């Protein structure tokens, strides 16, 4: 029996198909640094990752993980909301942006991404993506605030021609992936 692909694994696969050495990428929700390390590996020593998180604990965890991998010099860590990414990346300068919504694993589950701020961050991401760039959003329904945020993200994404990848093999609301591809110029 084939095990269905996890949304985070699919997001990595999608991003790896477009992101190259020397590119600029954004981790909109640094969390524990897994996506940041992944992106830093892809952009190589000549590229740059800008990683955002509103929690100092997440920034510290990401910094530690990057340092352990020898990738810290490739990343700008920003202790701020992803809604401010346009202040850190110019229009059409980013090849890939990743959002992993919900709460910080191992952190306070009361501190979650908020729908309004997420939608502002998604708009900012679309504004900084270059033609042919990619935006991935892993949504987590099933926790307080997660159902509403997930529904709002899907509604927003439908206006941008997004693809939604859901697992149908689960009984409870499962995480799912939304992919937005920036149109070629």
Helix and strand layout, with pairings?
Layout: H1 7-16, E1 24-27, H2 34-43, E2 48-53, H3 56-69, E3 75-79, E4 94-100, H4 115-128, E5 129-139, H5 146-158, E6 163-165, E7 176-181
Parallel strand pairs: 1-2, 1-4, 2-3, 4-5
Antiparallel strand pairs: 5-7, 6-7
Helix pairs in contact: 4-5
Keywords: Methyltransferase, Transferase
InterPro entries: MnmM_MeTrfase, SAM-dependent_MTases_sf
Pfam family, one: rRNA_methylase
Question: How would you describe what is shown here?
Answer:
By secondary structure, the protein is α/β, with parallel strands linked by helices. It has one domain (7-181): 3-Layer(aba) Sandwich (Rossmann fold), CATH 3.40.50.150. The chain has 5 helices and 7 strands. The chain has a 7-stranded mixed beta sheet with strand order 3-2-1-4-5-7-6, sandwiched between helices. Helix 4 (115-128) links the parallel strand 4 and strand 5. The protein is globular and about 45 Å long. The mean pLDDT is 92.
User: What Rg is obtained from the alpha carbons, in whole angstroms?
Assistant: 15 Å
Strand order of the largest sheet: 3-2-1-4-5-7-6
- Shape assignment: globular
- E-strand count: 7
Overall average residue pLDDT: 92
Q: Mind telling me the CATH superfamily name?
A: Vaccinia Virus protein VP39
Q: Beta fraction of the residues? A: 15-25%
CATH topology-level fold name: Rossmann fold
The span between the termini is 42 Å
CATH class: Alpha Beta
- Helix content class: 25-40%
If helices are DSSP runs of H or I spanning 4 or more residues, what is the number of helices? 5
Structural class: alpha/beta
Question: How would a crystallographer describe the biggest sheet?
Answer: 7 strands, mixed
Count of domains:
1
């Amino acid at each position: 029996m084939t095990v269905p692909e996890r949304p985070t694994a699919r997001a990595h696969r999608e991003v790896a198909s477009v992101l190259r050495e020397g590119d600029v990428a954004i981790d909109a929700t640094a969390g524990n640094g897994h996506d940041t390390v992944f992106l830093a590996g892809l952009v190589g020593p000549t590229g740059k990752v800008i990683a955002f998180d509103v929690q100092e604990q997440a920034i510290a965890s990401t910094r530690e993980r990057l340092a352990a991998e020898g990738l810290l010099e490739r990343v700008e860590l920003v202790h701020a909301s992803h809604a401010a990414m346009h202040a850190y990346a110019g229009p059409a300068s980013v090849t890939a942006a990743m959002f992993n919504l919900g709460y910080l694993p191992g952190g306070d589950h009361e501190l979650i991404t908020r729908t309004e701020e997420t939608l502002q961050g998604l708009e900012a991401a679309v504004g900084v993506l270059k033609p042919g760039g990619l935006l991935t959003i892993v949504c987590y329904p099933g926790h307080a605030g997660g159902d509403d945020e997930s529904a709002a993200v899907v509604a927003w994404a439908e206006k941008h021609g997004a693809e939604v990848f859901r697992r149908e093999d689960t009984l409870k609301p499962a995480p799912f992936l939304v992919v937005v591809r920036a149109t070629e110029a």
